[in-house]
Amino acid sequence: MTDRVDWNDLRQRRMAEPGADEAYAAARLAFELGQTVRDLRERIGWSQTQLARAAGMTQSAVARFEAGGTVPTLVVLERLARALDMRLDVRFSPVADAA
């Protein structure tokens, strides 16, 4: 019989693997970018199809992006920003000191 692994143990083991922190950070960034685009799209009352047309993308690509399923290139972000009548602003900010 095999030992069962609970979710917390599995997560702890996976996060200890090389590159896990970077992958987690990329997934968080993709999710946050997707949520921001979805919020902007919904604020102007557009469907995913309407945004896709305006950005020169497919509806499925917009859906994947909004769900956090892809890490976009700067070119894609710029196209989405333009379609949403926004300006893309990429910058570096200091990390808040936890002390």
Explain what this protein looks like in three dimensions:
This protein is mainly alpha-helical and 99 residues long. The chain has a single domain, classed as lambda repressor-like DNA-binding domains (434 Repressor (Amino-terminal Domain)). It has five helices and no strands. The chain has helices at 7-15, 20-43, 48-55, 59-66, 74-83. The longest helix has 24 residues, at 20-43. The protein is elongated, with a radius of gyration of 18 Å. The termini are far apart. The model has no long low-confidence stretch (mean pLDDT 90).
Count of domains: 1
Tally of alpha and pi helices:
5
Helix percentage? 55-70%
User: In this structure, how is the largest beta sheet organized?
Assistant: none
CATH architecture: Orthogonal Bundle
- Which CATH class is shown? Mainly Alpha
The total strand number stands at: 0
The end-to-end span amounts to 47 Å
Overall SS class: mainly alpha
Shape: elongated
- CATH H-tier superfamily: lambda repressor-like DNA-binding domains
Q: Spans with pLDDT under 50 lasting ≥5 residues?
A: none
Looking at the structure, the CATH topology is: 434 Repressor (Amino-terminal Domain)
Q: Mean pLDDT, nearest integer?
A: 90
Gyration radius from CA atoms, angstroms = 18 Å
Helix-strand string: HHHHH
Strand content: under 5%
Keywords: DNA-binding
GO molecular function, one term: DNA binding
Pfam family, one: HTH_31
Domain HTH cro/C1-type: 37-91
